[in-house]
Write a structure and sequence with these properties.
about 85% helix, about 120 residues, mainly alpha, 6 helices
Length: about 120
């Protein structure tokens, strides 16, 4: 087999790897790192870290004696609960939508990458 063909086979991307990364680590943008879309991957990573941090902060607040105390009244507790719920919903819907759009784009992105790679290796 030609050395160039071996190099192409070793470096080409496959949809299977992209979809596995999307399903398993999609929330942090792993599939976009694989596809070479670093800006989108970083945006997904930052979005997930910020949302997870906000939810963790609220959860710890519920569990702590200071914020978990309903001395602020039932209304204060309900506001914190709804804030937690709203962040979870926004994170869930945003992430799900982002991943569905990315899943639709995977075949096109892989084909484009492999065509560019073929051109670089075979000089076309």
């Amino acid at each position: 087999m030609d050395r160039r063909m071996v190099e192409y086979e070793a470096k080409k991307q496959t949809p299977l790897v992209a979809y596995i990364l999307l399903v398993v680590f999609g929330v942090v943008g792993a599939h976009n790192f694989y596809l070479g879309r670093r800006q989108q991957a970083l945006a997904q990573l930052v979005f997930s870290v910020v949302m997870a941090g906000a939810m963790l902060w609220l959860f710890v607040g519920f569990a702590s004696a200071e914020m978990g105390d309903v001395s602020g009244g039932f209304d204060s507790f309900v506001r914190r609960a709804w804030t937690f719920y709203a962040i979870a919903v926004v994170w869930g819907i945003g992430t799900f939508t982002w991943l569905v759009v990315n899943a639709i784009e995977v075949p096109k992105l892989i084909a484009e990458h492999n065509v560019r790679l073929h051109g670089r290796i075979f000089g076309e």
